[in-house]
Design brief:
Elements lengths: L1 E4 L13 E2 L5 E3 L7 H9 L4 E4 L5 H5 L2 E5 L3 H11 L4 E5 L2 H8 L6 E5 L7 H10 L8 E5 L4 H9 L4 E4 L4 H57 L6 H19 L3 H4 L7 H4 L12 H4 L7 H22 L6 H12 L20 H16 L10 H10 L7 H20 L1
Parallel strand pairs: 5-6, 5-7, 7-8, 8-9
Antiparallel strand pairs: 1-4, 2-3
Helix pairs in contact: 8-14, 8-16, 12-13, 13-14, 14-15, 14-16, 15-16
């Protein structure tokens, strides 16, 4: 043991003697590992020097910490003597001092007297259980009450056990030992579950990244063949994201969007033109307007894409990505008034994902250069989409588009 000025004590050193208040009540028990917070508290108490162990006592630092809270000095002294050989004991003569200590030390357990002045044990445990810092600290009530009602009240407030006074040393030690063992098992299980959740999260992220990489490659293949629409897939995805964000923010079609999986909705839009892979180059890249016969062939890219998704779904059942992709592919060329293709759906019979994609797709087609047309301005495109309200497009979604059209300009310029 060595007496050291408080300013020379280093965090991590072990206290060799109790530190007591002026009235003799211990504040910090022998064997405590001194943290920066504890050293700061000691300086605030104007303690100038303390006794520390000269040798390293790792076993002391690793001992479980117990708060013993009781307004009776005899109970504090007796209780500490009973358990100090196995645990680091922090006596506190009131709930207030207990809460002061909690700002610096998180114990492994609290032994809490019920009948105390100012704040009794029932009031104290309510505060403990309402604070996330202290919620999980196990509390054993100490009381001379033996009636069933008092015990039930204590347990209902979150205490894990009841120990009657006067203390029986073997019984008190066994109760503490059993509950600390249970708490250790709970903590280990919690750590295991957290590790397991993190492993699942990482594996899910890997699968998600792999899926997006495959999708990006497929989308790139489509654009590679349809070289007149460079950047179309990337731009339409961003347009769709803007529309979806605004739709959700405004609470429009909340019943339809309630079951959407937002992790997969927008990424699935990459496949909206996947069927174009099967359209021959003489039609896909024809430098001019298509004939009626060629146009009918071009329109089959929708049903080809739908069939491709169905074949995948035969092996992968119920995946949200495939669900959204299938609806976007099938419906993004349908029109609100029923004159679209390939199914001639009308109004709300058109899946909402397809109605949203229709606006994103048409916007990009209008502002982009094509072999058969020159690009038109954003303002003109905005007017044309507004003019399609109730005929080509869902009126409610046109209103959404008009409120965010300025964001489309930035995407069209940057992507």
């Amino acid at each position: 043991m060595k007496i050291v000025p408080i300013d020379e004590v280093q965090p991590g050193q072990i206290l060799a003697q109790d530190i007591k208040r002026a009235d003799g009540i211990p504040l910090i028990g022998q064997g405590t590992e001194l943290s920066e917070n504890l050293l700061r508290m000691l300086k605030n108490l104007n303690i100038e020097s303390i006794a520390i162990d000269e040798g390293e006592k790792k076993e002391e630092a690793e001992r479980k910490k117990i708060f013993l809270v009781d307004d009776n000095m005899t109970n504090l002294t007796t209780g500490k003597e009973m358990i100090k050989d196995k645990y680091k004991v922090y006596p506190a003569p009131s709930a207030k001092i207990m809460f002061d200590l909690l700002e610096h030390i998180i114990p492994d357990m609290i032994l809490l007297d019920i009948e105390m002045p100012e704040m009794n044990g029932y009031e104290a445990i309510k505060v403990l259980k309402s604070d996330p810092r202290w919620f999980e600290i196990p509390v054993i009530f100490l009381t001379s009450k033996t009636d069933e009602g008092s015990e039930l009240e204590g347990l209902s407030l979150g205490a894990i056990d009841y120990v009657a006074k006067p203390f029986s040393a073997p019984l008190l030690l066994k109760r503490i030992e059993n509950h600390l063992f249970t708490q250790t098992q709970k903590n280990q299980l919690k750590d295991f579950n957290n590790c397991l959740e993190e492993m699942v999260r990482q594996k899910t992220a890997q699968v998600f990244d792999l899926q997006n990489a495959v999708l990006n490659t497929v989308a790139d293949l489509v654009e590679f063949r349809d070289d007149a629409t460079g950047g179309h897939v990337a731009r339409t995805q961003q347009y769709l994201q803007i529309l979806v964000d605004k739709l959700l923010a405004n609470g429009i079609y909340s019943n339809e969007t309630a079951d959407w999986d937002m992790n997969y909705l927008v990424p699935s839009a990459q496949l909206h033109d996947v069927g174009k892979i099967a359209i021959r180059d003489t039609i896909l890249n024809k430098p001019g307007r298509l004939t009626l016969e060629e146009w009918n062939v071009m329109k089959t890219h929708v049903t080809i894409g739908v069939e491709a998704i169905k074949k995948i779904e035969q092996n992968i059942k119920g995946h949200a990505f495939l669900h959204h992709a299938g609806r976007i592919i099938a419906a993004h060329h349908e029109k609100w008034d029923g004159t679209g293709y390939p199914y001639g759906l009308r109004g709300n019979d058109i899946p909402l994902e397809g109605r949203l994609m229709a606006i994103a797709d048409v916007y990009d087609a209008l502002i982009s250069n094509r072999p058969y047309k020159k690009p038109i301005s954003h303002d003109m495109t905005r007017q044309l989409i507004a003019g399609g309200r109730g005929t080509h497009f869902d009126p409610a979604l046109v209103d959404i588009f008009l409120s965010v059209a300025h964001q489309f300009v930035a995407v069209s310029r940057d992507v």
